[in-house]
Specification:
five-stranded mixed β-sheet, about 20% strand, disordered N terminus
Length: about 375
């Protein structure tokens, strides 16, 4: 360790290791602002956070990027007035361009530069994602138990009721046959509902293999565009070098067909757009609750639409069963999606506001591609 520190110190002294290289390797957002809150410096994570290049951001006032009443500015003023670092946790930063982020913020005066403040922001989304996944999987397990109960306790007696109705139909008048037909039709309807619920039942582990996710997404795109009768064109923004996903092809097709159809159905009547994006996230790892293990989920697939968004009262429960914003919807589609993604060891999250909704799915890659 001493030798590593010595080598690093020499690299800095000789100029082979620049401060920019160090700051740009950090996952935290680093921004330096002057006395007028104009941006003097932003690192690579900051470019990603603000959805703009460092060159474009330089010289811009921070209050053009964030609401002036944001706690961020209060923290900057506090650090400048006190001449010492200030911090605040779980701060929500939001605007139409960057979406909504919950971050921890540290602000500190920059030595030798009067009134300059260094702001460091670290997103808290990782812990939130894990917490949401646990609740989604818990909801899916409750539906699994309900599905098993329905299949066993409801379908068997329904078969007897339907059979009895058929026998009665042979010996009743024409007027009464309408009632026996009603019994049969309603029995079939309830059986169909139970069949829909059975997709949640635990049928044991599914065989998984390396899956080219772009082949899955292309099939989904063709299905949704065909179903729209040519009235919809889905944009693609794919990373062609993306490695294979470790998963079940049919189940992944079911997941993304559901998500893309939801996005398409949420579009406005004019100017609607759906975009599917794939990318590789280096170093994206998640802690597994209850153990010291960490899982690598480098493959991200996002579905973006410019529909009206998810209502605020629905957002915390969007993956719960029987919760839906669709007229006549069953509320089972996204619950099933959460179940399948959870079984694949992945993470799903939704970032939604009026005019901008993005569903992000993170999945593990196949072991044969670990060398990427």
């Amino acid at each position: 360790m001493d030798q590593i520190m010595l080598d690093t110190r020499r690299s800095v002294q000789t100029g082979t290791l620049s401060p920019d290289a160090v700051l740009n390797s950090l996952r935290s957002v680093i921004v330096v602002v002057d006395a007028d809150a104009r941006i003097l410096y932003v690192n690579s994570a900051g470019e990603h956070f603000f959805c703009s290049s460092a060159k474009h951001l330089a010289g811009q006032s921070l209050d053009h990027l964030m609401p002036v009443d944001s706690p961020l500015f209060t923290l900057i003023r506090q650090a400048r007035a006190g001449g010492c670092p200030a911090a605040e946790y779980d701060v929500a930063l939001e605007n139409p361009k960057i979406g909504r982020h919950v971050v921890n913020i540290w602000a500190s005066p920059l030595a030798d530069v009067p009134d300059a403040i260094v702001v460091s922001m670290q997103e808290q989304s990782i812990a939130a994602k894990i917490e949401r996944q646990l609740s989604h999987r818990g909801a899916a397990r409750s539906v699994s138990a309900l599905a098993a109960m329905l299949a066993h306790e409801v379908k068997n007696p329904l078969a007897g009721i339907r059979g009895a109705a058929q026998l009665l139909e042979q010996n009743v008048s024409a007027e009464d046959r309408a009632l026996t037909r009603l019994i049969r039709d309603e029995t079939d309807r309830v059986c169909a509902l139970v069949d829909r619920m059975e997709v949640f039942s635990d049928g044991g582990p599914q065989a998984r293999e390396p899956v080219n996710i772009h082949q899955v997404l292309n099939r989904v795109r063709m299905l949704v565009e065909s179903g729209a009768g040519g009235a919809l064109s889905i944009a693609e923004n794919y990373d062609p070098s993306l490695p294979a996903v470790y998963g079940h092809r049919d189940q992944l097709t079911q997941v993304f067909l559901n998500l893309v159809k939801n996005a398409a159905e949420a579009l406005p009547s004019a100017g609607g757009k759906v975009t599917i994006t794939t990318r590789y996230g280096h170093g994206v790892r998640f802690a597994v609750p209850g153990s010291h293990a960490r899982v690598h989920l480098p493959l991200m697939i996002s579905i973006h639409d410019n529909g009206e968004g998810v209502p605020d009262d629905i957002k915390p429960h969007i993956f719960d069963p029987f919760v839906t914003t669709k007229r006549g919807g069953s509320g089972l589609g996204l619950a099933l999606v959460a179940k399948i993604i959870g079984e694949h060891g992945g993470v799903i999250e939704v970032d939604s506001q009026p005019g901008r909704t993005e569903v992000r799915v993170r999945l593990p890659m196949a072991a044969t591609n670990e060398g990427r």
